[in-house]
């Protein structure tokens, strides 16, 4: 009764995440989308050697294909946030699946590297972006208590697809060439449309809306004073429509920039920018590095499969650890440890010059890379909460896009200039280590100490804190304000009906005094009771 109706432009009642049910189907769709989004730019590197021969370009030119894909995945984040807030997750994902597929199909007919940038890079990257971000938003909608585990399982899609797409790409390259391989890959990307179709939004307020219609029907049937009561109801409806019009004029926030006032969000964004500068460099250049050291093409492509196989188990395992009660409040420090582990792996493996050394590097890189992948969005959700996550992830991905455009292409140019991969691994590892140290130190100094100094009534946002609880409390307060505003038209309706009942009682009393009877003594009381019950029904309907 006291909750607002979304159909009337008021605040809808918050829906509790089911933590299961259809959420597992949503998780499966997110698993596939994450696999294509992160594994595809790396798996395309299998075709780089042939592209270099056909188009007569260098390492840096071919590395731009993967970089543009990742840049579109990240750089279009605010556009995806606006589209999701305006149209919903499912329509945006269906359009994204079509764009991703058409980009790879068109890329198979290109005649120069620029056309390849526009098709495989821009178009396919945009399509994957329109699938990736909405899938994460839906995952946060369906899971709360099991969210760390759900994020870990969804993130496992990246290594699963990487371990399968790389050998598949090598087979397609040998049998059909790079053009036939791109054409078949474009057909595989149509599965993104299927994943978008299962992203069913949570229903809210349907049962309450049915009760509202039934209450209106009861009012029209039971009220004795039809004309005046209907007038009161129309007054109430008119007031609600006026409020709805006022609220629609204010407009809906398509992108919430107020999250930049959250210190935890700013720290996370800076750390991710530094991280992305070096995180994707080793897996993108690994295959070409192995081929240059004399490793056969098939075995070189198998190195990415090793990373993917280790990553498959690392991500769900890290998600389970992050979900433990004594770990979840400190998930930012676990994320810092994962980044530090990854950076040290790059630095220590910089001098690997044989296949055995590269295999050992892939094992440790797979573990650390899986930990980073499982925790990155869980930390962001813990900082900003699920309701602001759609805007937060869009802005974070936009900032990371700049780092993606700088990292791999710069590494490719250094390879062309120095002909030495050792420097690249040292540089990439140092950037990842720096991001880990910055996140850990800034979280401890700026957030934890600020928490201790702050007075108890004030709640400052913190990494791993209860941002969802604070948002729920604010929603309840706003809903109470709406319900108190709606009480005013209800009272006016009650006054109209009470006035009508008093007038009827007065007429009945005059008839009894003038005619000496005619009506039983209890008639006035019955009519008064009827008017009281009518007041309750009208008041219930007004809410």
UniProtKB/TrEMBL annotation:
Recorded topology in the membrane: Multi-pass membrane protein
Comp. bias intervals (Acidic residues): 468-478
Protein's cellular compartments: Cell membrane
Keyword terms, alphabetized: Cell membrane, Membrane, Symport, Transmembrane, Transmembrane helix, Transport
Cellular compartments per GO CC: basolateral plasma membrane
Region of interest called Disordered, as start-end residue ranges on this chain: 450-543
Chief site of localization: membrane
Top-level taxon of the source organism: Eukaryota
Family annotation (CDD domains): MFS_MCT3_4 (cd17430)
Stored SUPFAM superfamilies: MFS general substrate transporter
Segments traversing the membrane: 21-40, 63-84, 91-110, 116-137, 181-202, 254-281, 301-324, 331-352, 358-377, 389-411, 423-447
A single GO molecular function term of this UniProt record: symporter activity
Compositional bias per record (Basic and acidic residues), positions renumbered to this chain: 503-514
One Pfam family named in its UniProt record: MFS_1
Domain Major facilitator superfamily (MFS) profile, residue spans: 23-447
NCBIfam families: 2A0113
Family: Belongs to the major facilitator superfamily. Monocarboxylate porter (TC 2.A.1.13) family.
Stated name of the protein: MOT3 protein
Species name: Casuarius casuarius (Southern cassowary)
